[in-house]
Amino acid sequence: MRRSRKAKIMATLGPASDEREVIATLFRAGADLFRLNFSHGEAEDHRRRVEIIRSVEKEEGCPIGILLDLQGPKFRLGSFGGDGAVQVQAGEPFRLDLAEGPGDAGRVEFPHPELFPVLVPGTTLLVDDGRLRLTVTAHGADFAETRVAVGGELSDRKGVNVPGMVLPLSAMTDKDRRDIALGLDLGVDWIALSFVQRAEDARELRELVGSRCRVMAKLEKPAALEALGSIVDAFDAVMVARGDLGVEMPPETIPTAQRRIVRACRKIGKPVVVATQMLESMVSSPVPTRAEASDVATAVYEGADVVMLSAETAAGQHPVESVEIMNRIVEQIEGDEYYRAGIEGERTNPDPTVADAVCYSLESTARVLSTPAVVAYTASGFSAERAARERPAAPILALTPYLETARRLTLVWGVHPIRVRDVADEHEMVEVACEAAVQEGAARPGDLLVIAAGVPFGASGTTNMIRVAEVPHDGAGPQKIP
């Protein structure tokens, strides 16, 4: 199933999208890949969803990507007595400590001893997604004295954020390591790491996953923006996790942060996902607000690879409608006469490498010849990703003999991954490319195709060849273009 749009749609699965028919309908409605949120659900829930996705993939004859989203470290208060909630007033003292037992309006357990030593007077603690604010006045090895800056109702197990600090913690918890092992066993294609603060956070994750899947950084802390360039280099893709960023940063700064992250990823050709609250009102409403439609449009105009649905498809009342409307928004924007001008205006100069030179030539050759498609024959996905960096107007047919590669490429802008037979030489590669282009409805006999590949075939990261071929008429072999 070849989509008519370039930007991809990721849908999160959950209680509202648990049945096979719903998942299949979400795919047909426009979802290119699915997100499994490991902050919720049991192992068997995720295992069953993966099995359903793979069943739908086989039925549809089209690769479908799966992203495992790790929970990451979560800092939560303990519990309160009585009905589980207290009122805290602005200006009043409030203590966090390790003492077990129910809290009250003056103190509560905070079972995170690793945080107390790094706090300093003046540190702001955001509670319940920033609805309440505490300012640290003093601290020790097992406590923090604070003053309530913004008060309100405080209830059991509310989350705590510590903005403006690089915390000396691993981005992975023991739960995350167990979830990674499960995900690798299930054969997920991408793993998203939460709580990324620095490029070094990629190292442990890569050691665990090896080459079995790709790794993505979720940027949800302001500290990550300070190390943005090195983080983008260290990971295979990036997610703009606007919900968590919005807790720790002023809301007026989030659009600028989003644009900065998208540009950094586009500059070096790494896929970027824009996530959180894109069509949030559709959790309960059958139609989005006009502001939400404009929000999706902004991400598409910026050239994001993926726009993501979270609660809309995981827990909302209208999961399929959410995907359908997002699909229509993306198609509408990409059909705008000003869309290409913006995409081309944001294009950066290629790096002085053979792969970038080839893919730059691929785009310019396709543009001059007005070819209906470009083709990247790829083992690892590298050629297709470098081709996507140039944002060609024509669709990118990524031909690969490996299903794992095809699934991973469902995340990449403009790429339509197709699993094909392996090839032995250039003549067979051109033959396979022409066959696939016709079968996918991307080209007709007599059309020209521009093809990029790496020689020797089967070697990863060796994009070094470009070919122009004419799609043959029935019975004719592939035509060489002088």
Q: What does it look like?
A:
Helix 1 crosses helix 2. The relative contact order is 0.11. This protein has helices spanning 20-29, 43-60, 174-186, 201-209, 222-226, 228-234, 242-248, 254-268, 290-302, 311-314, 319-334, 339-345, 354-369, 382-389, 403-408, 426-439; strands at residues 8-13, 33-37, 65-69, 85-88, 93-97, 107-109, 124-127, 132-139, 143-150, 152-155, 160-161, 190-193, 214-219, 237-241, 272-275, 306-309, 374-377, 396-400, 415-419, 448-454, 463-470, 479-480. Helix 14 (382-389) links the parallel strand 17 (374-377) and strand 18 (396-400). The protein folds into three domains: 8-72 and 171-337, Phosphoenolpyruvate-binding domains (TIM Barrel, Alpha-Beta Barrel); 85-161, PK beta-barrel domain-like (M1 Pyruvate Kinase, Domain 3, Beta Barrel); 354-480, Pyruvate kinase, C-terminal domain (Pyruvate Kinase, Chain: A, domain 1). It has 16 helices and 22 strands. It has 482 residues and is an alpha/beta fold.
